[in-house]
Amino acid sequence: MAERSQTAPEAGNDMGNDDAIGGNVSKYIVLPTGYCGQPKKGHLIFDACFESGNLGRVDHVSEFEYDLFIRPDTCNPRFRVWFNFTVENVKESQRVIFNIVNFSKTKSLYRDGMAPMVKSTSRPKW
Questions:
Q1: What positions does the domain Cytosolic carboxypeptidase N-terminal occupy (predicted)?
Q2: Beta pairing class for 45-47 and 86-88
Q3: Residues 67-104: pLDDT tens digits?
Q4: Which of 45, 49, 86, 125 can bridge 26 by disulfide, Cβ–Cβ 3.0-4.6 Å?
């Protein structure tokens, strides 16, 4: 399990209850277990503290895998059907797996071949 950054506020608890997600992740730095000091390139920094951002919690599963918990829609708290967040401090050619673990729909268009929209400095077009 990753250590939480000393500078980032708590985005939720680690009890597995995604209903306890209170606010958006704000410059949340994921550091490896036992690591002390400033984040190095490759230590991901998650942020959703902007209009339409809805990432509520990040759990570090393994070196390259993260479980992401999406906050519910403001006008309809039963549903979690979209996501919007940023990730910074990525190493060139770094590959990671993001698991959106609390989508409210059991079926989605991702199962039919659609993919999330992604933009990066190495791939500036959506």
A1: 47-126
A2: antiparallel
A3: 999 988 878 878 787 889 999 999 988 899 999 888 87
A4: 49
**Which residues does residue 29 pair with via DSSP β-bridges, in sequence order?**
45
Among 35, 34, 28, which Cα is nearest to 69's? Answer: 28
User: Residue 122: CB partners within 8 Å, gap ≥ 6?
Assistant: 92
CA distance to 71, 72, 73, 106, per residue, from 45 (Å):
18, 22, 23, 29
Residue type, 87: V
**Distance between start and end Cα atoms, the chain:** 32
